[in-house]
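The methods section describes the discrete structure representation at length, but only in general terms. Each protein is reduced to its one-letter sequence and a matching series of backbone shape codes. I believe one specimen quoted in the main text would settle the matter. An entry of this sort, consisting of the sequence and the corresponding backbone structure tokens, reads as follows.
***
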Amino acid sequence: MTTPAPQDARESWSSRAGFLMAAIGSAIGLGNIWRFPAVTYENGGGAFIVPYLCALLTAGIPLLILEYTVGRKYRSSPPGATRLLARPAEAIGWWQVVICVVVAAYYAAILAWAVRYTGFSVNQAWGDDPEGFLFTDFLKVSEEPGTVSTFVPGVAWPLVAVWVVVLAILVLGVKRGIEKANMVFIPMLVAFFLVLVVRALTLDGAAEGLNALFTPDWSALSHGSVWVAAYGQIFFSLSVGFGIMITYASYLHRRSDLTGSALVAGFANSSFEILAGVAVFSTLGFMAGQAGVGVDEVTSSGVGLAFVAFPQIISEMPMGAFFGVLFFVSLVIAGLTSLISIVQVIVAAVEDRAGLRRTPAVLLVGGGIAVISVALFSNDSGLHFLDVADHFINQYGIVLAGLALVVTVSWVLRRLPALQANADATSAFGLGVWWRLCLGVITPLVLTWMMVDSLNSEFSENYGGYSTSFLLWSGWGVAAGALLLGVVLSLLPWRANRERPAVAEANEANEASEGSR
């Protein structure tokens, strides 16, 4: 039996900048580009910035600091860190790991679409009917959800390519792989998106699009749904709730500034979202002007925005091919940095749990998820599987896991004061009572409110018009299965000495004596 490497031999980031780039890369993903603009537009326009900033300051950044602190203090993946918090809490960590498996499988498929659309942009392969091209010609979507009859090689090969890139980066490790990749990808993404923004702002109709996005509807602030939307956007866009930041923070030096890092990552993510809103709505304003309709008639989000609306715009605008390539390459880069962080959670858990070295752990984890990903999403029901899994694992997986972690730490274990002291000891400024108030009261109440609101909508009508039977096994079943599997994995014994509380105690002792790096 191979004895796992000691905790002190754990990899680490080479610098604070490297950690920040990785954290920002994880946070900036597809949701920033295709979700935030539409959510803002539908929830009061410019007025939405008020609840959005409130959500960032009272839930987003406090949750980031909590996950950073737990990860750095216990220097382990989510299962190991939560196990050191309290033995029963380990189930939460494994729950987060299983959620990452589900998300990674379908997230990679969206990146594969973006890879193909980068090439399609050159000659506008979608022709005069981008919607028909996407669903019929490219994805070959079946009329009956869940019925698999056709293999789609046009999705399979770029999906395999995406996984090869991700696994190659992960095999290189935290410092040589993840950190170096993000140090290249994030500046590249920002540069590409700035070019997109400048190009979008010069289009006819850009002003109308920006007016539609930012003109405030102050009456919207009286609606509870607007505040729920703000907290939901912050929660989903910052990569909190499913173990990523716990994992990334476990590679921090023990004297790292946690509160300052959380503020930088949080505001960097929000700044990019606003930048994405400017680019998207400037472009939608151009589309509305070309069609002679209002901006509200061309507004969309998600798959419809990226793979239907934007191809139509690309076909109509000057220098469309250039714009299209930049847009889809930006999608690929944003998604790739997020996918790397998601898979790293699983890899770290397997390394810690089984004592495997990095390369075998990456190949075992990544190879397994890649096979699942290709099998599920390279067929004519792939879009249906993706749509339902994404909805249910986000609404009833990530949110619930995040709620469970916050309630366990703040209410059950009452660890917030100790964790605050740990963060304050090495951070630029103290957290104060506001942090404990946010995590102990505001965040749990808001997440519970989000859950109740979502369930009310869920039971009023079937999501997406899908049949109840399809939703039961591909939606509710996936969400419930993630929780059940997390509990089962938490009951399995760890390899020798991986669970010893003495590790955490030694880390705390070292924190008191180790100099700042």
